[in-house]
Design a protein that fits this description.
This protein is of the alpha+beta class and about 425 residues long. It has 3 domains: about 150 residues, Reverse transcriptase/Diguanylate cyclase domain (Alpha-Beta Plaits, 2-Layer Sandwich), CATH 3.30.70; about 60 residues, 5' to 3' exonuclease, C-terminal subdomain (DNA polymerase, domain 1, Orthogonal Bundle), CATH 1.10.150; about 150 residues, DNA polymerase, Y-family, little finger domain (Dna Ligase, domain 1), CATH 3.30.1490.100. The chain is about 35% helix and about 20% strand. It contains 13 helices and 13 strands. Strand 5 and strand 6 form a beta hairpin. Helix 4 packs antiparallel against helix 5 and helix 11 runs antiparallel to helix 12. The longest helix has 21 residues. It binds a DNA duplex (18 and 18 nucleotides) through helix 8, helix 10 and strand 9.
DNA sequence: TCTGGGGTCCTAGGACCC
DNA sequence: TCTGGGGTCCTAGGACCC
């Protein structure tokens, strides 16, 4: 048996936790650059604010009634860690699936109904974050149960075949975990509208139309688990940093400074994961939301002479890559830095044809990590990143990082 | 004026091997 | 007129997730 625990309206819940005057009020959280709505409190949903809509396109009369926040990932990441730590007390086997979701293996546990309720109570008491719990014999059904829990009292346990039959009967096919926009468009033309319809098709048909992933989904909907809990120790396959700028630009220096900053981020993440990259990709994009302007997008993949997470080396290659794809006379929106072909730091093999001897220490990177961890992010940066940060995001409605900085800690009078 | 970021897995097709 | 068979590896693109 699996449980899926999902934080309700997570980002909005985090913001409200520290500004309780917004409890019971419509609250939204915006994406980077205050672009789209990415989280909504129930009251905001009730006002008809949709997920993913650009904030500036929301009706002004509605905007006036809603409290908007810029996304504050420092806060959300810390709150997420608290929730996950609490969940880990319920079973040794957990998979942190996303910032606000966690799968738990409950095989061998009994009284699932009351155990699920205990989880909900303990999480809200210890962290202040409300969660919903779905329990079922497969991950796909646990997701489905979780969705149903949101419409009940926050808990849904699908233990018996009868309960599962009943649950899939009216469950919309497009809401199944693994059915995205494309399949949601296609399936109704075959008369498939519900999870029950999909699972009633012959397996061969599903294999043909939805390939191997559909086959797994089919078994899972029948209560046969075939997607295991992912191990939390696995190495990532790629690490990316990409961000839209606060404004469009054609200025090469601007782009280079942003590339250096994003590349710095990537190298930090690599070192944190104790990984080295063998391939570094740089991608440059104009604003696709403005089809009337001339568009240009290009990317370059650089095979590194030897696997590395050294900031100076990565930046050198990143800048060279950027130069090779930059074209003047376009207005750019975004640059992406993507490291792939990751291998463990300690298994790096040397290259016969590079003069790198493996002994040179990663001193600059290590010093930067040490100072930036101790004194706070951005204490020591490469000069090539620039000091103006012209590329930084718009975040006009940012709340303080209440739980991670002494200066921001909440005062109680 | 203003439209996110960071991941995963699978398949097809091309280049290459003997 | 007629031009093999059985592989591997890599990449791009498309689907999905939160």
């Amino acid at each position: 048996m699996f449980a899926l625990v999902d934080c309700n309206n997570f980002y909005a819940s985090c913001e409200r936790l520290f500004q309780p005057e917004f409890r019971g009020k419509p609250v939204v959280v915006l994406s980077n650059n205050d672009g789209c709505v990415i989280a909504r409190s129930q009251e905001a949903k009730d006002l008809g604010v949709h997920m993913g809509t650009p904030w500036h396109l929301v009706d002004a009369a509605i905007r006036d009634q809603v409290k908007a926040f810029s996304s504050n990932y420092t806060l959300y990441a810390d709150m997420s860690a608290r929730v996950m730590n609490n969940l880990a007390r319920f079973t040794p086997n957990v998979e942190i699936y996303s910032i606000d979701e966690c799968f738990l293996s409950l095989t061998g546990f009994s009284n699932l109904e009351s155990y699920g309720n205990q989880m909900r109570q303990q999480i809200i008491r210890n962290t202040g974050i409300p969660v919903s719990v779905g329990v079922a014999p497969s991950k796909t059904l646990a997701k489905l149960a979780n969705r149903m829990a949101k419409n009940f009292n926050g808990l849904c346990v699908l233990e018996t075949p009868e309960k599962i039959d009943l649950a899939v009967k009216d469950f919309k096919v497009e809401e199944i975990w693994g059915i995205g926009r494309q399949y949601a468009k296609k399936l109704p033309s075959f008369g498939i509208l519900t999870a029950h319809d999909l699972r009633s098709q012959p397996l061969e048909w599903v294999q043909e139309k939805l390939t191997i992933q559909g086959v797994r989904m089919w078994y899972e909907l029948h209560g046969k688990s075939c997607i295991q809990l992912a191990s939390m120790t696995e190495r990532k396959q790629g690490i990316r940093s990409s961000r839209s700028f606060g404004k469009l630009t054609g200025d090469y220096t601007f782009l280079e400074e942003a590339t250096v900053a994003y590349c710095t981020r990537v190298s930090e993440k690599l070192r944190k994961d104790k990984s080295c990259a063998t391939l570094l990709s740089i991608r440059l994009l104009t604003n696709i939301h403005r089809p009337e302007t001339t568009q240009y997008t290009n990317s370059v993949a650089i095979t590194l002479p030897h696997p590395t997470n050294n900031i100076l080396e990565l930046v050198k290659h990143a800048v060279r890559g950027l130069k090779s794809i930059f074209k003047p006379s376009y207005l750019y929106l975004k640059v992406e830095v993507y490291a792939t072909g990751l291998i463990p730091e300690r298994e790096v093999q040397l290259n016969l044809f590079s003069n790198y001897d493996g002994k040179r220490k990663n001193e600059v990177s290590e010093l930067m990590d040490r100072l930036n961890n101790y004194y706070g992010k951005g204490t020591l940066i490469l000069a090539a990143e620039g000091f103006e940060k012209k590329w930084s995001m718009r975040r006009n409605f940012l709340s303080p990082p209440y739980t991670t900085e002494w200066d921001a800690i909440l005062r109680v009078r």
